[in-house]
Amino acid sequence: MRRPRASRMLAAASASVVVATGIAGLAVQGASAQSTVSASTFNRNFTTMKLLKPITAKGKGGIGAILPDTVSSTRYVEFDAPYLTKALQLAGMPSSEFSVVNAHGSDATEFADAQADITRGDTVLIMDPLDAGVGAKIESYAKAHGVKVIDYDRLTLGGSRAYYDSFNNVRVGTLLGQGLVSCIAAWHVKSPDVLVMHGAVTDNNATLFADGYNAVLDPYFASHKWKLAGRPAGTWTPTVALSEFEGYFTKDPNINAILMPNDENGAPVIAYLKSKGVKPDTLPITGQDATLTGLGNVLTGYQCGTVYKPIYLEAQAAVALAVYLRAGMKPPAALVNGTTEDTVEHVAVPSVLLTPEWVTTKSAWNS
Question: 289 to each of 18, 23, 75, 169, how far by Cα in Å?
Fold first, then answer.
């Protein structure tokens, strides 16, 4: 739902300069934003967004943000949608010129949302694809209509986006792997029999997570210090994750540790284990996204930790990229701090890559 029009006035201290010099004044302030906005300047107070107002004033058209679903992670409702909305408002985007919607797990809905945004006059889309297929379809349609796309959180393999905004997802996986190693030691798990679960194979992030945690875990299996109970096919649907787990647990009831790639997949597995009499602080399970459910399971001793990704940083970075693109300007090099390979197109995609943290009841680190 779009909100009342936000103010497009500049700060009082610079208003007289703008009036006196017109476009030149805006250009000076735009240059200031170019030199000030970077991947490290975003914060909990969203103060960097205000620096973008002169850039926003120079732009044309709207900005549409499309989130994928509410099932794979509750983060999209709890964090992404409100943070994107706040960042757009504070960057000076009129509320009549932006929207934040959710595709509710439907490829057809996500594509229809993109079409509606472009028909309405949006010139930039911030899009988290449900899968590479619909992502590439949206990006092809957008390109044909002169609209720029920012891949948000997930990279569209085979796509044609302008930029990618996410976390260092191999690092996310590394933290999951290191977290499980630490938890197995802290919870005194003897003869670890470990089930290594995976996210949806259609999500490039799941592949990157696995690259990270497999690099940590594989030496333990190779040395026979740990037993590998199995590697299920993978999903982001919690009910399917539970079915995958139950199948392996039925065959191997000695499973006593689980690499779980996110909190939502872990929740029904934890509920199942509770029903079987598993006690707190005995069977370590990892997670990701620091959702309310996941944090609750960490606090009660049924999940040993979760990877926290500060979504408020990711949302601000996406909006910053969008504001520059909307104004026809190249985002500053200090904002675009990395590249990510599109392994289908074999291109290095300019990226904003942010830093995740591992969180337990006792500590958090991001080394």
Answer: 43, 43, 7, 12
The DSSP output letter for 175 is: H
CA 267, CA 256: separation in Å to the nearest integer? 16
Which of 203, 199, 175, 217 minimizes the C-alpha distance to 265? 199
The alpha helices in the chain, defined as continuous H runs, are 12-21, 23-36, 47-50, 53-58, 75, 81-90, 107-120, 132-144, 169-186, 204-222, 238-251, 263-275, 292-299, 311-326
d(CA 156, CA 136): 6
- 119 Cβ contact list (under 8 Å, min separation 6): none
- Please state the CATH superfamily assignment of the domain spanning residues 12-165+312-355 in this structure: Response regulator (3.40.50.2300)
| Number of C-beta neighbours around residue 46 at 10 A | 18
Tokens of residue 174, six digits: 């590394």
The predicted structure's pLDDT at residue 362: 85
Non-local CB neighbours of 334 within 8 Å, separated by 6+ positions: 37, 38, 39, 40
Q: What's the pTM value of the predicted model, to 2 decimals?
A: 0.86
Q: Which CATH number fits domain 169-308: 3.40.50.2300, 3.40.50.12160, 3.40.120.10, 3.30.470.20?
A: 3.40.50.2300
Q: Which two tokens stand for residue 9?
A: 């006035």
Count CA within 13 A, CB hemisphere, residue 66. Answer: 32
**Cα–Cα distance for residue pair 216/205, rounded to 1 Å:** 17
What DSSP character marks residue 4? S
Distance, first Cα to last Cα, the chain: 40
pLDDT at 205 over 80: yes
Q: What is the mean pLDDT of residues 56-74?
A: 96
Cα-based distances in Å from 144 to 80, 139, 147, 157, 188: 28, 9, 8, 18, 58
**Mean predicted lDDT score pLDDT of the chain:** 91
Q: What are phi and psi of 108, to 5 degrees?
A: -60, -40
| Interhelix angle 311-326/81-90, nearest 10 degrees | 50
30 vs 40, residue with greater confidence? 40
Q: In which region does residue 336 sit, left (phi positive, over 0), alpha (psi from -120 to 50) or beta (all else)? A: beta
For residues 69 and 101, the answer to whether their CB atoms sit within 8 Å is no
Q: What is the pLDDT of residue 36?
A: 83
